[in-house]
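Notes continue from the previous slide.

Worked example: a multi-chain complex. Inputs as given:
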Amino acid sequence: MQRVSLKFLAKELGIAEGTVSRALNDYPDISQATRERVKEVAKKFNYKANQNARRLATGVAEAVAYLMPPNTHAISEPFVSQLLEGLGSSLAKRGWDLLVVQASSPETEAETVEKLSSSGKVSGVVISRPYKEDRRIELLKKYNMPFIVHGRSVNSADYAWFDVDGEKAFHDGVGVLADLGHQRIAFIGAPTDYNFGQVRLDGYKRGLASNNLVLDNAIITITDMSDDAGEAATARMLDLPQPPTAILCATDTQAFGALAAIRANGLTPGIEVSVLGYDGLDFGKHTHPPLTTMAQPQSHSGEEICDMLLAIIDGGNPVDYQELRSAILVRRMSVGPPRPQ
Amino acid sequence: MQRVSLKFLAKELGIAEGTVSRALNDYPDISQATRERVKEVAKKFNYKANQNARRLATGVAEAVAYLMPPNTHAISEPFVSQLLEGLGSSLAKRGWDLLVVQASSPETEAETVEKLSSSGKVSGVVISRPYKEDRRIELLKKYNMPFIVHGRSVNSADYAWFDVDGEKAFHDGVGVLADLGHQRIAFIGAPTDYNFGQVRLDGYKRGLASNNLVLDNAIITITDMSDDAGEAATARMLDLPQPPTAILCATDTQAFGALAAIRANGLTPGIEVSVLGYDGLDFGKHTHPPLTTMAQPQSHSGEEICDMLLAIIDGGNPVDYQELRSAILVRRMSVGPPRPQ
DNA sequence: CGCTAGACCGAAAGCGCTTTCGGAATCAAC
DNA sequence: GTTGATTCCGAAAGCGCTTTCGGTCTAGCG
């Protein structure tokens, strides 16, 4: 199979290489006639420009990278999949590529970002779930690489981001529980070196204050975002002299574990102990009982993030691209009024 | 920030560009001394080769693409995430890139494959969940692009693949149900234009035969792979004059829906009606009751698939890379003996 | 001390495309 | 019929790297 290049087409058409290129790229200084002739022959021979050459010549990569969250198994988390899907389809429409890159280890992360920035492979990158202080963000800024973060770090004034207001969500979350009559509301949180972990904790605390509830460290557990961790944390807190009547979880997955622990204790989630999750996973419909949760409006966030990034690549000011969304409550069966004692 | 190129380094070092390149790439005709000197300066200036130039010059892309399954929302399916993660980490170790590409629409799929093959962007591709007759596979063969398919099409003799034996799994699946005493075993399947859909159906039918059970089309429903579809199918079959006592589902997600339909009918899954899923999703632990399922051994399949593909890119014969795995039964609570009538 | 091998490096030719620049051809207008 | 403006295209110079080829220099040998 003869590799069909510009040169080949040019020879075939009897015109210059540069002319073929300009015709294909719709330059205005090419007559309608030759433009059509060129395109026709190109299609006939199924010509596809060599992307590497094109990128080298133009200096634009027409590709963006998604930097996987640092912890392992992150991609299996639904939010990553959702995001990737949105990015992918949005990019595909413009003919751009989506690179998904994983740092092989936390140590090589900086290296990875640097390589991404200097190697010309991509014209922009999106990262998610930043730490409070995130090295990647600093690096990206330093290298002047357009980027957008899905989430925020503590200091988010000078870059583009797309985030859901976790502080508000958790503040309001204790609100719904308190309104139901709960006085002793536990919190299962995520590691606070993640900014979202910190923020959700902050929201919880502020929610307590707003409802004149006392903060009790005994019913606050910071742990990782797995169902097993949620289960262990719940089991422990249920054994307390004064167990909580409701549990607020930083992630749905933790909440799944919480439900299991409650049942294992012979109690009924939603009746004896309420559980409120966060994420809005569809799976939550199928838990026992179905999980009440605060859903991230992530339906088209991938597309939106992509659009924002593209705008920045086109020269937009990152600061103009900061979007804050609100979570919305999905009422299912795991939250109810406290049982009268 | 001065773009640091080979030329820049060469000038800095006072030696020729080509020499710098050869030093960096460990050519044997460079003295130990200059090699070290070059590498040191390269590191000092944080030199990263422009990948586009490199790829253009060498003709090798050092990247592979994952072609997303054609249906929408496919990426949210756990198997895709798992695969992507394995591919990504495996590739990262070698410094290769992972492209995830989505055809913007089914019509443009062929176009997408052709572009992938001709544009020099990648040196190999992996696709999953092929149709019985899959256009992409034909195209990939035609263009002589190294590839491996996750799954198989009907005619899988002449390319590389990695698959789980769905036929056997479903044959054995009706076996475990039959051994428990079930006589009326329903099947909720996936569209049979997907090869895996066909194969699972075939396995089910053969399982019926092996256990001297009659095949009744009334309790076979081919539908799509969502929980809602599973729920609807189950609801319908439960309303039959002779409802099934057990239901075999092509995917766990359908099984989740089946559980819901059974409960909605006032019955208890695992007691009155058994449900056996397929996929081995972790989330199945949290359904009500926990889902018994046949798990795909997908822990490191991404890595394995990557290794196989790389071997083919290195000139290996695709036919030598065909791996068939077996699903394993994960016993949870949704399967039990039929209730004596 | 002259000569032949290596060892090491410089020069240059691409890789396949884009894009600028200028020249030829065409056309209108005087 | 000449001029000036247009239109259209060819030529050529890169983009930043790799890789071949040949030349210089040193070392080793007789």
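Summary box: The longest strand of chain A covers residues 274-279. Chain A has a mean pLDDT of 93.
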